[in-house]
Amino acid sequence: MSRLADTVFRLASRSLRVSLRQIPLGFSRAVSSSTLPIFIFHAVEENPKPYIKHLYDYHTPESFERVLDEILRNFRPLEDLSPQGIARAGADQFLVTFDDGLRSSYEVAAPILERKGIPSIHFLITDFLAGSSASRVEEKFKASLLKEALSHRSLRDQADVASILAHAGYVGAPEDALMSVRLADGAVYAEVAERLEIDMDAYFRADRPYITHDEAADLARRGFMLGAHSRDHPRYWEIGLDEQVEQTLRSMQHVQTAFGLPHRYFAFPYKNKGITSAFYDRTHDAVDLFFTTSGWGNRMNRQKVFHRVGLDSTGSASQALQSGWRPFPLSLVQ
Length: 334
What we know:
Blueprint: H1 3-20, H2 25-31, E1 38-41, H3 50-53, H4 61-74, E2 76-77, H5 83-88, E3 93-100, H6 103-116, E4 120-124, H7 139-150, H8 155-167, H9 174-179, H10 188-195, H11 200-207, H12 213-221, E5 225-228, H13 241-259, E6 265-267, H14 277-283, E7 289-292, E8 305-307, E9 309-310, H15 317-324
Parallel strand pairs: 1-3, 1-9, 2-3, 3-4, 4-5, 6-7, 7-8
Helix pairs in contact: 8-10, 13-14
């Protein structure tokens, strides 16, 4: 998609979301009786983590319970999480998913979901499943951590970081430039961290953002469904087809082998931007269902790709549904 076409698409999508907020939720449910609302969460934290703070909103335990209660007033939890159960579910049910396999999804969110009787699917970044000694994290976590640290530093420090980023091709305010670094240029984070005297490896080893293999296995034993979310969470539109396929197949194989899962579910990191029909051709036999956050207009492989509505915001679940849930079956627009 050209830059102009991409801009037009984003503006049109924004306008559509605004318009959809005016449609009553009951009407949306009536005309989309075969469209299952699927929600995506990431973190449930009592206090904001600096490596999450600048990436997306997060729920406290209290706000997470509040938004779940709001959903439960309008929908029933989907209990059959098989591919057939998800495909056949209607608009009177809902499905909760968690992306990234963050530690808070296990320690905080899972007990709340169990208490309320809500099944869920947890999508894991397989290269980051490790024990307490692990320090590997996705690159954007480093960006957010450094951005938060930089906001408390002197003007001299900020100028030095801006110079480092500019030398790598990222100009502008250093806080914004940090967040725009491409995956291929991720080494610049180490240079910035050295200038700010931050030992990121030690920090992430101590904080351990992700769940371990044992914790993931415990989720499976307790009845939660697990899925794959790539090996190391790249932006698929920044990598080639071969790597897209490798990231998908190897992470899918990892969770299947490690946890003996009955179904094969994959959630795209970020979204399915940059995905072509060739990708689905090469992964079709290895994945039962795909999940994304930008699947409205996806004409490819539509029987296996499910759109999700982000609910990391602590606002109204109904408003998020009105702007993010398709108010019509895919068959009407594809």
